[in-house]
Amino acid sequence: MKLKIVLLSLLIVSSYARSADLVDKVVVFKSERIMQLRSGEHVVREYAISLGDRPVGHKEKEGDEKTPEGDYIIDYRNPNSSYHLSLHISYPNEMDKQAAKAKGVSPGGMIMIHGLPNKFGWLPGLFEGRDWTDGCIAVNDNEAMEEIWEMVANGTPITINP
């Protein structure tokens, strides 16, 4: 009987811990190459990241290799991408579309948080400490990307700061 109570208690604590690990906001600091997962104002996890090849400034058009800045949503996920897991960021928003239209250019899209390229996951040192994406936010550790995948639900807001 005592064993059943202990096991039941562990199950309850375990399921509570998993639901408590979900975050309600992702915050990126481009200049510091840091991404934080937050619950309220509490930083739950923090990760080193890489950005687009031209990381300074807000993404203005397709192919500029810049990572956008502003407020977006994690709106869907792709478990079968060319990179180890990927979470889609809702870029471009209406303001991005209008700014691109005014310049006569396409705003681009397909901005993701993702792990390493599938064929290079065994060589993370090749990517650390340098910007290498076309505008995405890369987590150069596939185990960390798996943790992010589990903790960040679709619909989670993301703020990308300069």
Automatic annotation (TrEMBL):
Keyword Cell wall biogenesis/degradation attached: yes
Keyword Signal: yes
Domain L,D-TPase catalytic: 24-161
Active site (record annotation): 114, 136
Alphabetically ordered keywords of this record: Cell shape, Cell wall biogenesis/degradation, Peptidoglycan synthesis, Signal, Transferase
Pfam assignment, any one: YkuD
Pathway: Cell wall biogenesis; peptidoglycan biosynthesis
GO BP annotation list: cell wall organization; peptidoglycan biosynthetic process; regulation of cell shape
Protein family membership: Belongs to the YkuD family.
Protein name in UniProt: L,D-TPase catalytic domain-containing protein
